[in-house]
Amino acid sequence: MNFKEELKNRANLVEAALERFLPSSDAYPPLIHQAMRYSVMGGGKRLRPALVIAGAETVGGKSADVLPAACAVELIHAYSLIHDDLPAMDDDDYRRGKLTNHKVYGEAVAILAGDALLTLAFKLLTEIESSHPEKVLKVINELAEGAGTFGLIGGQVVDTCSTDESDGEAVLEYIHRHKTGALYRVSVRAGAILAGASKKQLDCLTEYAELLGLAFQIKDDILDVEGDEKKLGKPVGSDIKNEKLTYPALFGLEKSREKARQAAGKAQEALRCFDRKADFLRALVDFVINRDF
Amino acid sequence: MNFKEELKNRANLVEAALERFLPSSDAYPPLIHQAMRYSVMGGGKRLRPALVIAGAETVGGKSADVLPAACAVELIHAYSLIHDDLPAMDDDDYRRGKLTNHKVYGEAVAILAGDALLTLAFKLLTEIESSHPEKVLKVINELAEGAGTFGLIGGQVVDTCSTDESDGEAVLEYIHRHKTGALYRVSVRAGAILAGASKKQLDCLTEYAELLGLAFQIKDDILDVEGDEKKLGKPVGSDIKNEKLTYPALFGLEKSREKARQAAGKAQEALRCFDRKADFLRALVDFVINRDF
């Protein structure tokens, strides 16, 4: 498998669907729709939507049937980045090599654009064509749970506000498991649920996604120390500047690399119950820990 | 009918349900759950949830069956107030006689608490017990539409960012129709849809809700000029201070009162297709334009 080509194919599918699902730039009031498009259509690896699609394909489903769900998780990811970048939060000026949303549209519009993307995500989910509306409701329920205070937002709160330094490793694990892991887990489960996965298949995919999310996040922390600003599209060293709790800060670079490799290995093991239809997910693990962007 | 008692009964039902649905104050991470509860449980007239319940009751449904939907619209209302009050938006220090969310918890947590309430609203909707999951999906779809950029957020964007002063009345109508009207309309429709309303009943209720929302908003503008700060729980005159487009600013107080009465009269007419089960909605119209808080 040429993984990068496969990933690109899925990204193209998702971007074409996002283009259709997002209100056009001149729909009234245009400013908010421009701000939404600025952040959503501004690149990104589209890993979460690829996970939705792969979750479906791994259990025999089709990408076309889960595109609204794939786009919904990407909108939630985009909203979380816009709000994370705000001056009251991480106060970042650049994201993916471009000015952050509030640097272009101002804080008020950036807050509202984030709100609007989160809201639109749930609207998209209701537009999934399925003969099993109860499965669609289950996906909406899981996405709301994964994006909420016991998932993404919980991770963000602890990341932004934690003053508890007594047990750094536990806090760090909580942050990563929630801030990144929750949406990874929900993404792969959403695709699989819509495609009719069995309980056992869902369990394997869930374990896989949690370990993949962990590997991804450790690698992200490593790249913030030793990555190339041009390739990353954002300044490196911001974690140190902001005194963020990270794997390299806690364990050093070498031990962090080892932990990323361990998580990656376990993620591969979790896929043992699948045949070659899971090959994309297998290649994704290697991509995540070997990437330089 | 003793309207205030009936309204209070519904508010009590809703507050007991909100108490159950909101994560407890000590659930991890506690800060965000405390911030969510601070704004949601801090009073308010609970008009939108009352509309959900009345929408159901008017077409023969039961309040107990629509409580998650009633709470969901209240959570969306609460989230929109928290974000509206932020320094980057209206920069308000008081709401309902209490400090605004960001004055107590800081901007970062206030932004996240708003995000979390919006997210929780959609989760609640998936927990509606219904033998018609497609109706629940329709309600989620309408709520996402009404809360999005063609509804609530659209109104907020124009309210916050409009620089077009060429047609004040049209802009003002857009703001009110979207910022207040959209959620009123969705509230009454959500209750009615879940209770199995006919197309004709839905049409009547939709017209009613739009006119009620308009009357409410004109009255709100009037109270900001001539209301009693103690009763309102917030400073009066903030619209003038912020150079907001309002009915009194455009038409003067007397003409604004007349417009509120006209909208109220039309709202009553829209209820002609209903029997006495719509009496709560009828009394609500009078309450909305005669209130002093």
Tell me the CATH superfamily of chain A: Farnesyl Diphosphate Synthase
Mean pLDDT over all positions of chain A: 94
CATH topology of chain A: Farnesyl Diphosphate Synthase
Largest interface: A-B, 50 and 50 residues
CATH class category name of chain A: Mainly Alpha
The proportion of residues forming helix of chain A, as a percent range, comes to over 70%
Helix count of chain A equals: 15
Total E-strand runs of chain A? 2
Total number of distinct structural domains of chain A: 1
Looking at the overall shape, the CATH architecture of chain A is Orthogonal Bundle
Q: Please give the radius of gyration of chain A in angstroms.
A: 18 Å
Explain how this protein is built.
The structure is a homodimer of 293-residue chains. Chain A is mostly helical. Chain A has a single domain, classed as Farnesyl Diphosphate Synthase (Orthogonal Bundle), CATH 1.10.600.10. The first copy, chain A, has 15 helices and 2 strands. Chain A has helices at 3-21, 30-40, 47-58, 67-85, 101-105, 107-126, 133-147, 152-161, 168-194, 199-226, 229-232, 238-241, 247-251, 253-270, 279-290, and strands at 94-95, 98-99. Chain A has a two-stranded antiparallel ribbon with strand order 1-2. The two termini of chain A are 21 Å apart.
